[in-house]
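Quick one:
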Amino acid sequence: MTPAQAPDLPQKRLRSIDALRGIAALGVVFYHAVEQGEKFLPGNFMRYPVRVLQVGSSFGYIGVFLFFVISGFCIHLTWARARASGEQHPKIPFGQFWKRRLRRLYPPYIIALVLFFLFTATSVGLNVTHFFIYDVVLHLLMLHNLDPKTCYSINGVFWTLAIEEQLYLAYFLLLYLRSRFGWGVTLAVCLLARVAWMVFSHVVWAKTGIGVPVPEAAASHWFTWALGAIGVEAFFGLVKLPRWTRNLQLAVALIVTASVLSNYLPSISKDTIWHDFSWFLIHPMWGIGFFIVVNKSVFAESGWVRNLKLPWIISAFATLGVFSYSIYLTHELTIMQSWRWTNPASWQIQNVFLVVIPATILFAWVYFWFCERPFMSRRSVAAVESSELEGAIPKSQISNLKSQIVDSGRL
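Output:
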């Protein structure tokens, strides 16, 4: 990778990033909303489209890896913009960085935790044991992904939020490695961290019988997150990436291959090198695939801006992307309660598309306005409002709003 001439520095909210957030969030929602198995298939011709829905949604969880790439892109955006503006050694103050992250992300997370406890207490009741207190403390400290007993205990997706917080901490080490040794060495270190954590987990299990999560560990996903940081540097012209990094055909091949490999991994004997090697490759393959998708999308947006035309499908998913964090925080709660509104006699596909998904999006939208938006910075709120207006005003006025829209890295 070599430095490239910086383009005009974009200050607007990247709608392509918002759209990818929306797609990733919706994929995770479908993964949890669609019931799997033969017993959920209708006994007529509709079994075939429902089966297609089951198969497709069963891979919705890989949207998590797209989220990791996007996170690396957005977190590194401030540094990349400063460097592209001519600042040779941009500084990211540790305290200021964490103050902004915690204020933006922690309150909505805590509110979601409280909602889960309230619904549990009013439905099946809460049993306050020593483990419950331990579980809650780990969730409050965002360390619950380090214990297999607490990874999925309160909410099945909150382990990824713990990973995010830990990767934010690792970001400062990433900055040091990138500035001191360059991206080649940095990516190698990120991959070695994945290997080291896998070895550490195996040794601990062999010596003590204690399970240390691997797929739920931040070290396992550092490489994927770092790819997003490289992507934002390429977007600002700080590095020049090879053409294959924007090849969507390659992205599809990597994502599909990793998905197939993941599906057949349980059938490979755990005592063989092929199992370990396949396990090591799956997550980085998803990461590289989604890295390509992100690169292609943000560079394509430059063309949309020049033509003053945003594809309608991008606009639709970008709208979801604005409150994707709220979707992620609340969708399991809504899905758990959806039995109150769905008709057991109806086909699953009917319940999912007509009831569960709309209810999930509606509740998340309300949650965003009352439980997430109040904790956003003023510039972030201005970005949301401006991005909403951009699709609704005459083209002649769009340029007048550009200066009002701030970067998506603040969201």
